[in-house]
Amino acid sequence: MTTHTIRAFAPADSEAMLAFAQGLPEHDLLFLGRDLRHPRVVSAWLGAIAEGWIDSVLAEDDGTIVGTAAVVRDPLGWSRHVGEVRLLVSAERRGAGLGRDLLEAAFAIAEQRGLTKLTAQMTPDQTGSIALFESLGFRAEALLKDQLCDRGGRLHDLAILSHDARSARARREALGLE
């Protein structure tokens, strides 16, 4: 059985994160808005963590990054109560509970930050990711046609899911899980 450790993403993890991103198919990265395989993108991510705009964790297995989750928010904006969840899991670790563990870590971050709504973006053909998010209370909210363009010039739709963190917390409390 493979195990993993979840911890905060730190500046010392920059090269390991780049190596992780290089191992992911481009299609897995489309929803991020920027190509995570570039050092400047990872550097900007770490800068946003330092400035308090992003909270991010990673999952390691024997010192190798096998997944990551981030909660992105704009504390100065009109939607400061909303966090966008970004989740990536290596292909060989999918379906084994790692994504669920990372998403649960994102929920804990959101609760700590007082967020009342979470969103997630992905392409509609990422059915495993959609099923995972829906199993934890996310629901489809929008579909943006031809929103993404990959390096080959192919257009892809973007699905947006959302989660009402307040009602989920109330359900957990009612069930005695909190």
Characterize the structure shown:
- With 178 residues, the protein is α+β, with helices and mostly antiparallel strands.
- The protein has 6 helices and 7 strands.
- The protein has helices at 14-22, 26-29, 39-51, 98-112, 127-135, 165-174; strands spanning 5-8, 54-61, 64-72, 82-89, 117-122, 139-149, 155-164.
- The chain has a 7-stranded mixed beta sheet, with helices on both faces.
- Helix 4 links the parallel strand 4 and strand 5.
Strand order of the largest sheet: 1-2-3-4-5-7-6
Strand content: 25-35%
Mean pLDDT over the full residue set: 90
The parts where pLDDT drops under 50 for at least 5 residues are none
Structural class, from secondary structure content?
alpha+beta
Number of strands: 7
Biggest sheet record: 7 strands, mixed
Order of helices and strands: EHHHEEEHEHEEH
Taken from the alpha-carbon principal axes, the silhouette is globular
Rg (C-alpha, Å): 16 Å
What fraction, in percent, of the residue positions are helical? 25-40%
Task: Give the N-to-C terminal Cα separation.
Answer: 29 Å
Core attributes:
178 residues; alpha+beta; seven-stranded mixed sheet; 6 helices
Helix-strand blueprint:
Layout: E1 5-8, H1 14-22, H2 26-29, H3 39-51, E2 54-61, E3 64-72, E4 82-89, H4 98-112, E5 117-122, H5 127-135, E6 139-149, E7 155-164, H6 165-174
Helix pairs in contact: 1-3
Quick structural overview:
This protein has 178 residues and is an alpha+beta fold. It has 6 helices and 7 strands, in the order βαααβββαβαββα.
